[in-house]
Here is the input.
Amino acid sequence: VARLAPTGAATIHVAKYLHASGDDACAGERELEGLLDTVQPGWRECLVERQFLPLMTVANALVPAARGGIAGRPGPPVPDIRNVYVVGDWVGAEGMLADATLASAKLAAAQIAADRREAVAVA
Ligand SMILES: Cc1cc2nc3c(=O)[nH]c(=O)nc-3n(C[C@H](O)[C@H](O)[C@H](O)COP(=O)(O)OP(=O)(O)OC[C@H]3O[C@@H](n4cnc5c(N)ncnc54)[C@H](O)[C@@H]3O)c2cc1C
Here is the structure.
């Protein structure tokens, strides 16, 4: 279990999915506070810090079949720019969402290490 707060404190998340426009974000915040009043009464008196994130991005890109699906995603190396790599859930031919982010980060790190070995061997 991840430790998200110091001993004696707690981090509480409440969330709901909104329409992509985010138009009902303020109403959504009141609704979430109401839910917390019900399940965790007294939270307002104990509050140290709060963060309201009404427009979180779930996925940074779709993978349309017309662009080859997952296998058609770009990177990690950026074409025509040496030593620049991208990582994220829109990168690489493996996984979806967080899996794709970590898979592309691992691939980018391996490619950077291989490039360095090659540069050292040439020098
Ligand atoms: C509510 C929700 C539920 C989810 N549930 C799951 C799940 O169950 N399983 C799963 O695998 N995935 C889930 N995801 C998706 C997962 O969180 C994302 O796929 C993953 O975080 C993408 O990682 P990323 O590094 O590509 O992008 P992000 O995590 O979006 O990171 C990009 C970072 O770049 C920063 N940034 C943006 N623009 C700039 C700029 N101009 N300059 C500097 N910094 C900038 C942003 O602030 C952000 O910190 C969920 C996402 C959400 C929002």
User: Anything to note?
Assistant: The mean pLDDT is 90. The CA atoms of residues 71 and 106 lie 17 Å apart. The longest helix spans residues 97-122.
